[in-house]
């Protein structure tokens, strides 16, 4: 059964939360920030429900202290507060909180959040244990050159990347190779966020740096590496290890610069694809117009030829009676007239073939346009 520490200077608030949780969890209480820190040192809980406004140390100060201590930084902290502004929530997040819920407390929502945070904490604990074992085995071999090898691998991967989502995932993978937990914003015309939700506290913090210049900013225990194209939020930078922190900070800045260059390349390719599509659309439109005009002219020409041939044959037949020709001469003239008519009809048919061929050219353009669209 998980151990829950409820921290609130108001006894009635502690009583309400205890009544809600005592059937599911083991509950202990503290009435101040100092008492919370003392209890946590003596009997570390599995999760802490922390009030914000209290005499002495505020909830924010207590949270920063807990998250700065390696012995307690993995304990989930959920703020339970009457303050419900975005600024207050961001301040809680910057202090290191894992969740924020407002009073009066929605019991079902709190229980669900606690389940999620306890599961995450268990997963992090397991991951940390595995990472610790791996680190112990690899510590002697770990050098700065191996970290640079991770950057080289990132460069190799980015050459194959053609989407903002894949680029963000590659940044997170590279950060994980440094044992860092990250979330990433790719600042394209439609921003892409990976590793957190756009509307949660981490996503909001990323959004604050969308329009910032290149740099590194600290928010509580979190570090933000930002360029105009890429914003990376690192949740667990090793601030207590100055040498490792400085090394990782430089590596992450390099990753951000490389990723920014790839974003610019992707945007240039997208613009080129749009320009090609526009050019193809213009060619198709021009071809349609030309074929329509040519088809109309060919149809008109065919009609005129047929009319003239029919008129000529009719006129020739009527003239034969007045020329006084014998039957053999009349047959020769009529044969000549029919041959001429057939040649003209053949030319008329050639116009139809040309019109059909132009139609096939247009169909080929349509198929090419469709294949380009489906391949994008």
Automatic annotation (TrEMBL):
<dbReference type="GO" id="GO:0000160">
    <property type="term" value="P:phosphorelay signal transduction system"/>
</dbReference>
<dbReference type="InterPro" id="IPR001789">
    <property type="entry name" value="Sig_transdc_resp-reg_receiver"/>
</dbReference>
<protein>
    <submittedName>
        <fullName>Response regulator</fullName>
    </submittedName>
</protein>
<dbReference type="InterPro" id="IPR050595">
    <property type="entry name" value="Bact_response_regulator"/>
</dbReference>
<dbReference type="Pfam" id="PF00072">
    <property type="entry name" value="Response_reg"/>
</dbReference>
<keyword id="KW-0597">Phosphoprotein</keyword>
<feature type="modified residue" description="4-aspartylphosphate">
    <location>
        <position position="51"/>
    </location>
</feature>
<feature type="domain" description="Response regulatory">
    <location>
        <begin position="3"/>
        <end position="118"/>
    </location>
</feature>
<dbReference type="InterPro" id="IPR011006">
    <property type="entry name" value="CheY-like_superfamily"/>
</dbReference>
């Amino acid at each position: 059964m998980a151990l829950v520490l409820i921290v609130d200077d108001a006894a009635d608030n502690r009583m309400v939360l205890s009544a809600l949780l005592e059937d599911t969890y083991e509950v202990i209480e503290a009435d101040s920030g100092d008492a919370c820190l003392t209890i946590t040192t003596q009997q570390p809980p599995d999760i802490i429900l922390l009030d914000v406004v209290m005499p002495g140390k505020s909830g924010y100060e207590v949270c920063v202290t807990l998250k700065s201590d390696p012995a307690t930084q993995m304990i989930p902290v959920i703020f339970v507060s009457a303050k419900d502004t975005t600024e207050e929530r961001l301040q809680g997040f910057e202090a290191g909180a894992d969740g924020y819920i407002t009073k009066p407390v929605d019991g079902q929502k709190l229980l669900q959040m606690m389940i999620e945070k306890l599961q995450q904490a268990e997963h992090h604990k397991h991951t940390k244990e595995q990472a610790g074992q791996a680190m112990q085995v690899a510590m002697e071999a770990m050098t700065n050159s191996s970290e640079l090898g991770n950057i080289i691998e990132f460069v190799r991967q980015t050459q194959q990347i053609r989407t903002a989502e894949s680029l963000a995932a590659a940044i997170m993978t590279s950060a994980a190779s440094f044992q860092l937990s990250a979330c990433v914003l790719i600042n394209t015309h439609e921003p892409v966020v990976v590793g957190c939700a756009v509307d949660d506290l981490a996503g909001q913090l990323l959004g604050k740096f969308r329009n910032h210049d290149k740099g590194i900013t600290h928010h509580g225990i979190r570090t933000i590496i930002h360029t105009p194209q890429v914003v990376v939020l690192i949740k667990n930078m090793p601030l207590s290890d100055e040498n490792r922190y400085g090394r990782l900070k430089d590596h992450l800045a390099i990753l951000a610069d490389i990723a920014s260059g790839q974003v610019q390349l992707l945007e240039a390719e997208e613009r080129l694809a749009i320009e090609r599509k526009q050019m193809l659309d213009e060619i198709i439109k021009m071809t349609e117009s030309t074929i329509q005009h040519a088809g109309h002219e060919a149809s008109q020409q065919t009609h005129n030829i047929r009319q003239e041939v029919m008129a000529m044959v009719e006129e020739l037949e009527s003239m034969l009676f007045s020329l006084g020709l014998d039957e053999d001469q009349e047959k020769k003239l009529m044969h000549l007239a029919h041959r001429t008519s057939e040649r003209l009809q053949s030319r008329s048919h050639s116009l139809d073939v040309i019109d059909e061929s132009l139609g096939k050219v247009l169909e080929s353009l349509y198929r090419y346009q469709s294949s380009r669209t489906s391949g994008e």
